[in-house]
Amino acid sequence: MTRALITGVTGQDGSYLAELLLSKGYEVHGVTRDADEAVTTGVIAHELDLATDSAIAELIATVEPNEIYNLAALSSVYQSWQSPALTARLNGAVVAEMLAAVKVIHDRGKTDIRFVQASSAEIFGVPTESPQNEQTTVRPTSPYGAAKAYAHGLVGAYRTAGVAASSVILYNHESPRRPETFVTRKITAAAARISLGLQDTLELGNVDARRDWGWAPDYVDALVRTAQHLFADDFVIATGVSHSVREFVAAAFARAGVDDWQDRVRISDTLLRSGDAPLQSGDASKARQLLDWSPTLDFDGIVSAMVDHDLALLS
Ligand code: GDP
Its GO biological process terms (predicted)? Predict the structure, then answer.
């Protein structure tokens, strides 16, 4: 039986990944911050606060997984500006501890552990070219991106040292499991509440930002395909299609049956971010070719699934 260890198992991606691996017959271990967190049924939970505890190396040595998926992170670019040192620890230093632990096992002769790092389009900051691919200049413009860039570099270094480590450069990926700290869920939850008269207006920051939004279950499928690929490598995972935040608002409000969305949205300067990329668009040709990966849900499908979920929650 293949044994997987997932950090960040209670998050959006972690929960979808746990479900996918369990359906494939894996033994799934997950790292949780505290005992109160809801863990997918069937996952063997290990309580460990990565922010303060360095026991992840010990856990890797004990579990000896065949595949490690590192999804734990301070996941919001906005929050990374409030907590840059915590971001450096969770999104950067922890990855060093994990890769060092894998290398110790590797050097003892067990050389087939696959390490998959959830990297991010934020490593490109304000991108130098469009669309971005695996060769695009890494030049982060946020504490989140800088920490993810360090981790991306580490994965490359450990791969050169013989460890089967891959970095998967994920573009924004959404689902009804997104928290409202992300703009998509903030919008779909507000659209649902406004359509039912439970909220008047929605406050947003940069509505001109264009993002390459994909469907989260498709992106965890890409992580598994990466782990199972013949050799470790870096892959961009994206749809290649970008939409503005404004377009997301229009689509979500239309789905919720609200016609006057322009009157409902207020722009707040406090929600603007330094270093916010005006446009992100990923070229996933390499993953399409080598991993036989492709997205299953487009922009309209994602918006509809999220709005319908939020309407159902309120009914
Ligand atoms: P992330 O930037 O990858 O963490 O994803 P977000 O969903 O937080 O942000 C996506 C884009 O939406 C960014 O360009 C934000 O600047 C923009 N945005 C505009 N208004 C908001 C808002 O109210 N909240 C958030 N989270 N993002 C916003």
Answer: 'de novo' GDP-L-fucose biosynthetic process
Residues 245, 204: contact at Cβ < 8 Å?
A: yes
CB atoms within 10 A of CB 63: 17
Other Cβ atoms closer than 10 A to 263: 10
What CATH class does 3-173+215-237 carry?
alpha beta
pTM for this entry: 0.97
- Is the beta carbon of 244 within 6 A of some atom in ligand 1? no
91 C-alpha to center of ligand 1: Å? Answer: 19
Measure 206 CA to ligand 1 centroid, in angstroms. Answer: 7
Provide the token pair at 15: 């929960």
Position 191 pLDDT exceeds 90? yes
Q: Is 54:46 a contact under the CB 8 Å cutoff? A: no
267 CA distance to ligand 1 middle (Å): 13
Q: Out of 26, 144, 171, 219, which one is annotated catalytic? A: 144
Ligand 1 pocket residue status of 211, Cβ below 6 Å: yes
Query: Has 144 been annotated as catalytic?
Result: yes
- Is residue 120 part of the annotated active site? The answer reads yes
Query: b/e for 153-186, b at 16 or more Cβ within 10 A?
Result: ebbeebbeeebbbbbbbbbbbbbbbbeeebbbbb
Tokens of 66: 């065949």
Which protein residue's CA is at the shortest distance from atom 6 of ligand 1?
Answer: 182
Domain 175-211+241-281+297-314 CATH (choose: 1.10.8.190, 3.40.1190.20, 2.170.130.30, 3.90.25.10): 3.90.25.10
